[in-house]
Amino acid sequence: MRADPIVPFTPGGRERAAPGSCLPPRLTFVQDIPMPRFAANLSTLFTDRPLEERFKAAAACGFIQFPYALLPERVGDLVAMNGLELAVFNAPPGDWAAGERGLAALPGREEEFRDSIELALTYTDLTDCFRLHVMAGVVEDEDLWPEALDTYTANLAWAAERCAEEDVKVVIEAINTGDMPGYFLQRPDDAVQVLEAVDHDNLALLYDLYHAQIIQGGLTDFIETHLENIAHIQVAQVPGRHEPDQGGEINWPYLFTLLDAHGYSGWIGCEYLPRTTTEAGLRWARDFGLSAP
Ligand SMILES: O=C(O)C(=O)[C@@H](O)CO
Ligand SMILES: [Mg+2]
Q: Which residues are the active-site ones (predicted)?
């Protein structure tokens, strides 16, 4: 399904870590597992260009949040023309400018929610994208949480079923409330509970290591316990949400090796805010042996 070549994140020439080099002692190194595949988030990277031009600039990095400023046919063309694979994008989040961050947990908005999924499916169809992030929404008032949870699980069950017809996996992501105040799905452990409540095999986790580190921590344990339910991963350093380099508290070589050792074969979405330019910031990729410019 992946279009080749993937530039500039092609793992070509990347050296395998020596057995045991930065693996936790309880893991056994397996030679033939794939190395992580990195994808660029075109809503946070290459933002010095208009959206249409970011496709070319990223040249096959494969991740975008909200493509709705462009018609689905145009997004499909840009993906195809640039040899990209679209790893994941978000269903329409409601009125973003007014502070909305998804519709799935908002009681009374069910019809709009279903329409938003149908719209998203026109994009997944024309772009051959097989993962859709469905955002929960902002629910500030804690008294409304029980009703919001019922709405959320019912909407997700519907979306998982509907998207399964199109071979598109629905993913949900816990987002820390410092970055997104009032966001309904805050902790990765909450996301697991939602997954269990909905109990649909077309629903999975988007594990964003930046949010997870801030709001819950325990990245290793979570990965080791829940990897089979993780369909997409996103990365950014803490603090600052910048490049996944050595300038913060998350140890990327350790985590990427851990994912590798457990056989994670999905995409790792580069959803960070470059400290300067995207190109200059891609030095971190070289640190991981990738062919960044
Ligand atoms: O904010 C994040 O983190 C995301 O991954 C987005 O999908 C939502 O803005
Ligand atoms: Mg994210």
A: 173, 271
